[in-house]
Write a structure and sequence with these properties.
This protein has 558 residues and is of the alpha+beta class. It folds into 3 domains: 232 residues, Up-down Bundle (Rhopdopsin 7-helix transmembrane proteins), CATH 1.20.1070; 94 residues, 2-Layer Sandwich (Beta-Lactamase); 147 residues, Heat Shock Protein 90. Helices cover 55% and strands 18% of the residues. α2 runs antiparallel to α3. This is histidine kinase.
């Protein structure tokens, strides 16, 4: 006897499911993969069992195989929903006690199906009839049986929505694959519902296993061909949780009116509140006297929580959906309490150095000059040495003051004619130190930068050369290389000592390794602030090379 075409279709679906299982072995350890395998195993058993059922006319064996098909309906939905939860990174739901309690539904359905001959609450009137060349089965599905099928289909529907929504959120990367995932349960799902309702060309035959053929094809495309198990949503979900939930920085999500939508644990600790107490309440209500605007931007707030006073810089970023509609703001609180305390201590120290040390140094300098002019011999030399040392100390203080007044790059960038600025710097340096300085910069070379910082940079490079090598020939040059301006200051002296350059490269001084002055530090700091690169070549004299961006925007300078 020839095999009926429905049986052949069921066996073909089973073989396709087996092939899909072989392709999934490499992804066994990926999130949701084990539940997906369980889904396909259930589907495989269902297909082979129902294919065999279509060949069996013995009522007892045919009923047993029909029960296996029912178990496939019951368990495939739960397994698919479990896969969707794991695949999309919702492991907390998957491992929760209440979801484990949901497993009681398919367990109860299994018990009812297996024991149905005793109570007939799932179906009744079972009999084997010839249908489509095979062994069909006619019976009435009762309300409990219909409810069992509906629950299973709801599981499949929820799982499909989870996968479809999450994968689509990747954007165009997996859009076609997401469509395949969304469509794959439709053919078998529709077949189950039509069969349960007694609708179809052959009511005595369940066409679901035949509809697993397109289902397998779509799954192969979505999960094997496109490597969706390699780039699964669980990674992004875990990353989002780590980026907001697990970080130590307080983060609040607010709507357009500034009402709290979510707080991460760090924000709860900062505000000394429970997240559930703050939901839908204005965030400003928990910030004391300082309010933050709800139109984005940054601000500063003081927070009293747990008996501690902390200062925070608040940065708001617009939260938009894929259509560009603004939904609210992500509010990030950066704790700057220690930074502010350091700034205040530095302000006190700076005032002390500027007033007390400078004033006392001027007194010592004037008395040393007086003594040097009135004394003779060795005593005059001692007075002159004192005068020179105090002069160097006063100059260092002036340089430090210049840097402090210039700020950390707050001034807006301006167009600068480099040759003119260099000429002014060189003229000032010649008056103070003498020496020979040549400027070799094209007259039309311009750059957009912060003039005050660039002047400090050039002045200290030229002064450093003239101070340490009075008789050296100093050359200031500049060229354009790509988008950068390369400035060089060269002399033919003995070169900057290695220990001075070592301190600059390390970026810090120690008791045993320190520079002899602040000039080179000013060069390094201003270069860094101007987003440039600094290099020294001491193989033949000293050549300081500074590479600066030719165009610097206000945003880059901020």
């Amino acid at each position: 006897m020839d095999l009926p075409w429905l049986a052949l279709g069921s066996f073909a679906s089973g073989l396709g499911s087996v092939y899909l299982l072989t392709r999934l072995r490499a992804h066994w350890g990926k999130p949701g993969a084990q539940w997906f395998v369980a889904t396909i195993v259930t589907q495989t058993v269902w297909c082979f069992a129902y294919g065999a059922a279509l060949l069996v006319f013995d009522p007892t064996l045919r009923l047993a195989l029909e029960m296996v098909a029912w178990l496939g309906i019951i368990w495939i939905g739960f397994c698919f929903l479990s896969f969707a939860l794991g695949y999309t990174g919702r492991t907390t739901v998957l491992e929760s006690w209440w979801y484990r309690a949901v497993a009681a539904l398919p367990l109860a359905g299994t018990a009812l199906v297996v024991t149905n001959p005793l109570h007939t609450v799932v179906w009744q009137g079972f009999r084997v009839v010839p249908a489509a060349g095979g062994a069909g089965a006619e019976y009435a599905v009762l309300p409990v049986g219909l409810l069992t099928i509906i629950v299973a289909m709801l599981f499949v529907s929820f799982g499909t929505l989870l996968v479809f929504d999450t994968v689509v959120s990747y954007g165009p990367l997996y859009r076609r694959e997401a469509l395949a995932v969304g469509l794959s349960p439709i053919p078998p799902g529709a077949a189950v519902l039509l069969w349960a309702g007694g609708v179809g060309p052959v009511p005595a035959v369940n066409l679901t296993t035949l509809m697993f053929l397109p289902h397998v094809a779509l799954d192969l495309y979505a999960f094997v061909r496109s490597d969706m198990f390699e780039f699964h949503p669980a990674t992004r979900r875990a990353g989002e949780r780590a980026a907001i939930h697990d970080i130590a920085t307080p983060v609040a999500i607010v709507d357009g009116q500034g009402r709290v939508v979510n707080l991460n644990p760090a924000a709860e600790r900062m505000l000394a509140v429970d997240k559930h107490e703050t939901l839908t309440e204005p965030l400003n209500d928990f910030l004391g006297d300082d309010d933050i605007a709800t139109d984005g931007g940054s601000s500063r707030v003081s927070v009293e929580a747990g008996g501690r006073h902390r200062e925070f810089k608040v940065q708001q970023t617009a939260l938009r959906d894929e259509a560009g509609t603004q939904l609210g703001y992500t509010v990030v609180f950066q704790d700057i309490t220690d930074e502010i305390r350091r700034e205040r201590r530095l302000e006190v120290l700076n005032r002390f150095l500027r007033h007390n040390v400078r004033n006392e140094s001027v007194v010592i300098q004037a008395r040393a000059e007086l003594l040097a002019s009135e004394l003779n011999g060795e005593q005059a030399d001692h007075a002159t040495t004192i005068e020179r040392s105090v002069t160097r100390l006063v100059e260092s203080g002036q340089k430090a003051r210049t840097l402090a007044e210039a700020g950390a790059g707050d001034a807006a960038p301006e167009p600068v004619v480099l040759a003119d600025l260099a000429a002014e710097v060189v003229a000032t340096a010649r008056e103070e130190y003498g020496g020979s300085v040549v400027v070799e910069i094209p007259d039309d070379l311009r750059l957009t930068t912060q003039p005050a910082l660039l002047e400090i940079l050039l002045a200290n490079l030229v002064e450093n050369a003239l101070q340490h090598v009075p008789d050296a020939a100093v050359t200031v040059g500049a060229t354009i290389e790509g988008d950068d301006v390369v400035v060089t200051v060269s002399d033919d002296g003995p070169g900057v000592p290695d220990h001075e350059l070592g301190v600059l490269e390390r970026g810090r001084e120690t008791d045993l390794n320190h520079g002899s002055g602040i000039g080179l530090w000013l060069v390094r700091w201003t270069t860094t602030t101007l987003e440039g690169d600094l290099d020294f070549d001491t193989s033949d004299g000293t050549t300081a090379t500074v590479r600066l961006p030719q165009e610097r925007t206000a945003a880059e300078a901020a």
